[in-house]
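Milestone M4 deliverable, item 7.
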Amino acid sequence: MTSTVVQTDIDTTSVNTIRTLCMDAVQAANSGHPGTPMAMAPVVYELWQNHLAFDPSDPIWPNRDRFVLSMGHASTLLYSILHLTNVQAVTYKYETAGQASVSLDDIKKFRQLDSRCPGHPEYRWTSGIECTTGPLGTGFATSVGMAISSKWLAANYNKEGHELYNFNVYALGGDGCMMEGVASEAASLAAHLQLDNLCWIYDNNKITIEGSTDVSFTEDVATRFVGYGWNVQRVGDANDLKMLSRAFSTFKRETGRPTLIIVDSHIAYGAPTKQDHHSAHGEPLGVEEIAGTKQFYGFPPDEQFFVPDGVYDNFNNGIGARGKSKREAWESAFEAYRAEYPDLASQLENMQKRELPDGWDADLPVYPADAKGIASRQSSGEVLNALAKNYPWLVGGSADLAPSTKTYMKGLGDFQADNYAGRNMHFGVREFAAATAINGMAVSKLRAFWSGFMIFSDFARGAIRLSAIMEIPSIHIFTHDSIGVGEDGPTHQPVEQLLSLRAIPGIYTIRPGDANEVVEAWRFIANLKHEPVALILSRQNLPTLDRTVFAPASGMTKGAYVLASADDPEVILMGTGSEVDLVVKAYEQLTAEGVRARVVSMPCLELFEEQSQEYRDSVLPPSVRARVAVEQASTLGWHRYVGIDGAVIGMETFGASAPLGALLTKFGFTPDKVVSTAREVIERNR
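Output delivered:
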């Protein structure tokens, strides 16, 4: 380039380069938010250039510091720093691809189809992005899971003379993040756990989409966080690199408390002629405004995506050199660790690649036939405990419901401020924070789960969805899965939740029909690397099928399978979860009456859809149009399998408060009802 920049110190020039790249990207896309990236450019510059332990040449180095942009609408800020620091792309096989994660051309294609610079940061699309942050507050909450991971890894794998893990987690958010409830849930949890490796940076600019926060948000954020138990600092001017550096250094010396740094800023800072806060926040600045701002910075006013001489070198000599040195020292330390602790080193390598440890399934139970049976929440708890013995980095907990969800791992300790080695998490009555925390743990390569009642999955919906978008193997465990909850009534009886979980692309929703299907479900879950799971479990006992009479439970891995069948069936009965026993009883009654019936267990519809057409037709032959599906949930979606000639026995209303037996009779979940419905569809299809 022939253009020149008015000489200032290299720090100021680098900050202004971040700003101009951001405003040019938004202008080129004619879409996005330039104000916040411009205001926060000095904060991100100071953090990355002088404090962040991060190697751009190896952005998945295990002990790197994490940076999370919770206010994801300011994504150009992240793309600019990823470009200027020359972060390298990483493949699915955890190999460096030998090219920039974000090129200048990528920034020019901000918000365009198939761009590496989408409107909000997307995990796995662009190397250097630690997690997907869409809805405000969620990035803050996810960062808590990352900080938990650092503490857990240090407690379990650091040895005397071998400090492998001590990474810090930084998250940048704004007023919107502070308003969202999930951030409050997560902040409360972080303070309880004394996560002194966690630093939230709050862009206090007093502006949201509707204008000044005076119309909706006038609380004293500092006092709130002091009340939680955080260390609170304030930087009065976002451009003051010296004070920002002091704040970050103070954070790194803090013990026993997470840190909140409140940074006072002005939206679209640095554009002296810009007074329209609203458009500066959510719209491009405009050609004239950008030219004037660049001229104010001393940049060529008519040149787009301009990087002055010396800026790349500045970052390479700063974070590039410092990060590489730290990473190489860590790798040397890891080799010394491997020589002394080869088994632990092998675990860490498997963890990074989401590989299972040897012998992980050695102790999984096999359940004998039992007419009385066992609740699937109970059998799941037994399988989880058996699995945990041989799966050292399987960790998790519940939203205050472990005695009910049966997810406590016996003898493995509680993760608390005085015992970061514990594998049982206590998330409290914070469903959304629990789900975001395990997402943060999953992107940190722990195998993490959380649990709650299925009705409360609604509270965590955003995080469940993000686990699917990120393609991470988070495990969401939900018990009390139907009107079988009984006397608790409609507020606690899920009806539409099962369907709504199935509606999320990329997640496996598994509702096992008996204890052995539970075992196979966990066997399947353990092998997943990129897919989250919603495991749906019953409170009431489910009879354990006699597998010498019925097909092996291993059929669960195909999503649906034939339990038993006449040679030439005239009716197909299908069910999931607690309704499998119900359709089995109806099948047995119909068979005794001379009706040629088939019974199908369908624990995971998503898995079934992944099978070949040939297999699906073998389970549900197209020629058999008399079909009955039974599920204690919304009927929506089942007509895909029963067709226009079949019938669905399900819930068309909310439940009721009554003992289980009375509820099953009222809503038609009885063998007699299934049998009579089967006869009706057989007759209709004749």
